């Protein structure tokens, strides 16, 4: 049984940690509420400040309290992790069900940052 819909717009990234030896990142974002259903943006090549402007929708189920965000650098073979974060949906509900924010991708142990992702979130 669905508990509403989460709408996510992945607007852009900035200051993404460079994972490439030559050039800049070929970045994409993976979004999910649980490991069974993941959605992802397209890959934006050769930039550490990509613009995606892509929209996604998730049917919310009971117990899904966090939106997980993982940012990767696409390589010829595989991918390198740039950073990850999560957005608490309970806080989103408490804030009126809408948010337009830059989400930090914390470095190990929260020291420093691997960049930020601009998200627009809404619940319906």
From TrEMBL:
One of its GO terms (cellular component) is membrane. Residues 1-103 form the C2 domain. It comes from the Eukaryota. It holds the Pfam family C2. GO terms for molecular function: calcium ion binding. InterPro entries: C2_dom, C2_domain_sf. Keywords: Calcium, Metal-binding. PANTHER family: C2 DOMAIN-CONTAINING PROTEIN, MULTIPLE C2 AND TRANSMEMBRANE DOMAIN-CONTAINING PROTEIN. This is C2 domain-containing protein. The lineage of its organism: Eukaryota, Metazoa, Spiralia, Gnathifera, Rotifera.
């Amino acid at each position: 049984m669905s508990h509403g819909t989460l709408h996510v717009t992945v607007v852009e990234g900035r200051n993404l940690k460079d994972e490439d030896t030559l050039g800049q990142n070929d970045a994409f974002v993976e979004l999910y509420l649980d490991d069974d259903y993941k959605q992802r943006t397209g890959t934006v090549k050769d930039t550490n400040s990509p613009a995606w402007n892509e929209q996604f929708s998730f049917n919310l189920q009971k117990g899904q309290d966090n939106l997980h965000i993982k940012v990767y650098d696409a390589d010829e073979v595989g991918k390198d992790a740039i950073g990850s974060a999560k957005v608490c949906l309970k806080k989103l509900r408490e804030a009126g069900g809408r948010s337009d924010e830059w989400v930090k991708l914390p470095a190990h142990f929260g020291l420093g940052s691997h960049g930020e992702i601009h998200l627009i979130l809404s619940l319906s």
